[in-house]
Automatic annotation (TrEMBL):
Keywords linked to the UniProt accession: 4Fe-4S, Iron, Iron-sulfur, Metal-binding
Protein name: Molybdopterin-dependent oxidoreductase
Every 4Fe-4S Mo/W bis-MGD-type domain range: 1-48
Keyword Iron on entry: yes
InterPro entries associated with the record: Asp_de-COase-like_dom_sf, MoPterin_dinucl-bd_dom, Mopterin_OxRdtase, Mopterin_OxRdtase_4Fe-4S_dom, Prok_molybdopt-oxidoreductase
């Protein structure tokens, strides 16, 4: 029986029809019948030989098969012992942006009620946190795209800053076909190849570039004065800084010609309908929130946000990167995108959960801080920080020092290999659940195939653990629709209000973008058309200035190392590296480098190179690419072993968002010594 569902990977959530394990694309507004190679091959992970099919418990130094009863009893007993000795916060929880809304919700409730720990965060902190912080600051609300993706089709111009959708979400590019495209990226990516104008700044200087384009907007008479006066506050303070960043000065810092900055300003201003979109390239910096804020300032100066046919948005990466940050697995939030430190929010959610609001812990540390804390145990659901966390070598050592590491996953990821207990869980096509895509639309992903016999849902796992930790069974339902109905009540009245979303409405194919406060409410595909979400209804310019990356090149490490993704793989690669077609397309880590830069250290295309930073070294195959800046090398972060790019990256954090600086560190290139 064919089942209409969605791809398990990125936030575009392309429409897919599954017949058994046979994938076919289907019409859906975000993907328009398209799938990328990850989507076409997604079913291979369902019956992959790498699939986990039984719980594993470490005994005698080895992970050995165990019954579910033994595995869950072991976890509960050791959690209790650690908390009895070291306090509630001795146990931490790490979630993922690929978890369904139901899982993210129940995980947050499990941490705060069953464990009573403040230490819960998730890998979305490494993905969208700077965009979320900047959007909340500017607009009073964070929904990645506050308009449907399909609105982009009418745009005259689109500026993509630090986004490479031609590789990360190829069907998305259909929506850009009619627009003049301005791409800001240190690399000449496939997206940049298709652009009208490619601005190629040095990594870590994009905030300065945004200031230069803003300067050109004002100096060349493109400022939308009426919009700025009626719909915004703070322009004067932002302009005071941008006034000192005239394009020629910006050219000296970024390497982008002043004329190109002015051309970008003119293309956007004269398009009639224009969008500014950002992604990880702007966000994954120690100044990521301010960098996104600088692009928002540009969009506000042009009068784009909250205007039909124009806008500002952030392209979400992970499949449920949007929903995953709305319902409680984030360190500072409660369901409905409520703040954990808001007494009214605590009272509301505690009421739904049937607990005393004062019993709920307060905000905890962000993901990278959590992975460097004095916690004694970590429970990981749907994440692989051994590969995806910054300064991954240090994180691996931290995990090894824990008294207890528990990993729930579909495959034996690199993190699971270090675990004391591994819990095999169901994946996308084997369970019901909802996700919220990059445009804030809630989608139902339905069960299409049976899971392996000894595999359970994450909801089952959480329910089983909660009961063993002394919680009433009724407080932790394991049925996805029952959990969603509770989530609806917990989110009611919050910014991300799902109260009116039901499984029946989703089964009927209704396009419901949050907020949906009532069951007779049609949803909100476009936000901010009348007013922004701040009390005065106005958007806020941010007075942001360029300060540069946390770590600059020097004599010892003379290159800038930047990281990112490739078409064939997804995130830490734990799933896609198991798919034969994807693994053979890009089998191992590579380093993109200008041929002259490679030649200077005796390397040529195809050679093995050692890429080093102050934190570690990676072996990668040289890809000599003439369009690379001579001062920059690029590595994808999807690989493990000696090709683990995050061994290099800098854990310096954005002070607002907690985002690590994945996009810039100082590095060195050398031949691999043959012994
Ligand atoms: Fe679509 Fe993203 Fe899946 Fe590719 S990975 S098929 S772009 S949802």
């Amino acid at each position: 029986m064919p089942v209409d569902t969605h791809c398990p990977y990125c936030a575009l959530q392309c429409g897919m029809r599954l017949t058994g394990t046979t994938v076919a694309p289907r019409e859906f507004p975000t993907s328009r019948g398209g799938l990328c190679q990850k989507g076409w091959t997604a079913a291979a992970v369902l019956d992959s030989p790498g699939r986990l099919t039984t719980p594993l418990v470490r005994t005698g130094g080895e992970l050995r098969p165990a019954s579910w009863g033994t595995a869950l009893d072991t976890v509960a007993r050791r959690v209790r012992a650690l908390q009895d000795t070291h306090g509630r916060d001795a146990v931490a929880v790490f979630g993922g942006g690929g978890l369904t809304n139901e899982k993210a919700y129940l995980l947050g409730k499990f941490a705060r009620v069953a464990l009573g720990t403040a230490r819960i965060d998730y890998n979305g902190r490494f993905c969208m946190s700077s965009a979320a912080a900047a959007s909340t600051r500017a607009f009073g609300l964070d929904r990645g795209l506050p308009f449907p993706v399909s609105d982009l089709a009418g745009a005259g111009a689109v500026l993509l800053a630090g986004a490479n959708p031609a590789e990360t979400m190829p069907p998305f590019t259909q929506h850009l076909a009619g627009a003049e495209l301005v791409v800001v990226d240190p690399r000449r990516t496939p997206t940049a190849e298709a652009a009208t104008l490619h601005l190629q700044p040095a990594p870590g200087t994009d905030l300065a570039l945004a200031l230069g384009v803003l300067h050109a907007v004002v100096a060349d008479g493109h400022l939308d004065k009426a919009y700025v006066a009626e719909r915004t506050t703070g322009f004067d303070d932002a302009w005071r800084i941008a006034a000192a960043w005239w394009p020629e000065r910006v050219e000296r810092v970024t390497g982008v010609a002043a004329a190109d900055q002015r051309r970008a300003a003119a293309l956007l201003a004269e398009a009639g309908s224009a969008y500014v979109l950002t992604a990880r390239g702007t966000e994954q910096h120690a100044g990521g929130t301010d960098t996104v804020g600088a692009w928002i300032n540009l969009a506000l100066a042009l009068g784009l946000p909250g205007r039909l046919g124009s806008g500002f948005g952030c392209l979400t990466g992970q499949g449920n990167g949007q929903g995953g940050r709305e319902h409680g697995q984030k360190a500072d939030q409660l369901p409905g995108y409520r703040r954990l430190d808001d007494p009214a929010a605590r009272a509301h959610v505690a009421g739904v959960w049937g607990v005393d609001p004062d019993s709920l812990p307060g905000p905890g540390p962000s993901a990278a801080e959590l992975l460097d804390s004095d916690a004694r145990a970590l429970l990981v659901f749907g994440s692989n920080p051994v590969v995806s966390a910054p300064d991954a070598g240090r994180v691996t050592g931290w995990l090894a020092g824990l008294g207890l590491l528990v990993v729930a996953d579909v495959v034996l990821s690199e993190t699971a290999r270090h675990a004391d207990v591994v819990l095999p869980v169901t994946q996308w096509a084997e369970e019901d659940g909802t996700l919220t895509n990059l445009e804030g639309r809630i989608l139902l992903r339905r069960k299409a195939v049976d899971p392996p016999a000894e595999v359970r849902t994450d909801l089952d796992v959480l329910a089983g653990l909660a009961v063993r930790l002394g919680q009433p069974a009724a407080r932790f339902p394991a049925d996805a629709e029952a959990v969603f109905d509770e989530l609806r009540r917990a989110s009611a009245g919050g910014p991300a209000d799902y109260a009116g979303v039901t499984y029946d409405r989703l089964r009927a194919g209704e396009a419901l973008h949050w907020p949906v406060p009532r069951v007779d409410h049609p949803g909100t595909p476009r936000l901010f058309l009348d007013s922004f979400a701040h009390p005065d209804g106005r958007a806020r310019f941010a007075p942001v200035d360029h300060s540069g990356p946390a770590e600059a090149p020097d004599d010892e490490f003379p290159l800038v190392v930047t990281t990112g993704r490739v078409l064939a793989h997804y995130q830490s690669g734990a799933q896609t590296r198991l798919v034969p077609e994807l693994a053979s397309a890009v089998p191992s880590c590579f380093v993109e480098v200008h041929p002259d830069t490679a030649a200077r250290v005796g390397l040529a295309d195809g050679d093995s190179a050692l890429v080093s930073s102050r934190r570690g070294s990676v072996v990668a195959r040289v890809r000599a690419v003439a369009s690379m800046r001579p001062d920059v090398v690029f590595l994808p972060f999807h690989f493990a072993g000696e090709g683990r790019a995050n061994l290099l990256t800098n854990p310096a954090l954005d002070p607002v968002s907690g985002m690590p600086e994945f996009k810039v560190c100082a590095g060195r290139l050398s031949p691999v010594e043959v012994r």
